[in-house]
Design brief:
With 212 residues, the chain is α+β, with helices and mostly antiparallel strands. It has 7 helices and 8 strands. The strands form 2 sheets. Strands 1-2-3-4 form a 4-stranded antiparallel beta sheet, with helices on both faces. Strands 5-6-8-7 form a 4-stranded mixed beta sheet. Strand 2 and strand 3 form a beta hairpin. Helix 4 packs parallel to helix 5.
Length: 212
């Protein structure tokens, strides 16, 4: 089927479909590891891929999958990540507030940053934030250096972000006290200050010497 027939039928070629998917989502491989399974005949080696998918507009997903080769593992992980996409609440290209999450031994701390700061992050955390569409942020990785746990801890921290209209402020938590009118202020008698009792004057005793 030539291009003219494809246009008439309204179908897209496989190359056109791939180009459309690449524009919609950014797929990046975070880590590839070789795992072994002991069977009766010996060891069976497979590959495990850690992948992040995002559209740079607040949607991001992370997934891991295993396969007989690297290509199969990455393809399975990409499909799983697209099914588990989540929307991150961002505020002017950064986070609306601080967030912290822990998965296993990995502990991730995310903080908002002013415009022009950039991404102060490293490793898989930086890649996940870039794909999610975060342009200014501060992050700190504490504890374990396991990339799988760090990735899922970063996603859990992003899930806790709340939008600006749900922020809890001091005005929403504390009820405002009613303001008294000028007439009520005049009617209220002023409290008289209690005076301390006057101290009695102390009389000094005079000692007289006896004449010899």
């Amino acid at each position: 089927m030539d291009q003219k027939q494809q246009r008439q039928s309204g179908r897209k070629s496989p190359n056109q479909q791939l180009v459309g998917e690449e524009k919609q989502f950014d797929e990046r491989v975070l880590h590839i590891d070789r795992v072994a399974r002991v069977v009766k005949g010996g060891r069976r080696f497979r590959f495990r891929a850690l992948v992040v998918v995002g559209d740079h507009k607040g949607r991001v997903g992370v997934a891991t999958s295993k396969g007989a080769d690297v290509t199969a593992a990455v393809a399975k992980a990409v499909d799983t990540a697209k099914k588990n996409l989540m929307t991150v609440n961002l505020y002017n290209g950064t986070f609306p507030h601080d967030a912290q999450a822990k998965v296993g031994g990995a502990n991730i701390l995310l903080k908002p940053a002013s415009a022009g700061t950039g991404l102060i992050a490293g490793g898989v955390v930086r890649t996940i934030l870039e794909v999610a569409g975060v342009s200014n942020a501060l992050s700190k990785s504490l504890g374990s250096s396991n990339k799988v746990n760090i990735s899922y801890a970063t996603v859990d921290a992003l899930k806790t972000m709340e939008s600006a209209d749900k922020w809890v402020t001091r005005s929403t938590t504390q009820a405002k006290k009613p303001v008294k009118k000028a007439e009520e202020v005049e009617k209220t008698p002023e409290k008289s200050e209690k005076k301390a009792p006057a101290k009695k004057p102390t009389v000094k005793k005079t000692t007289t010497k006896k004449a010899k």
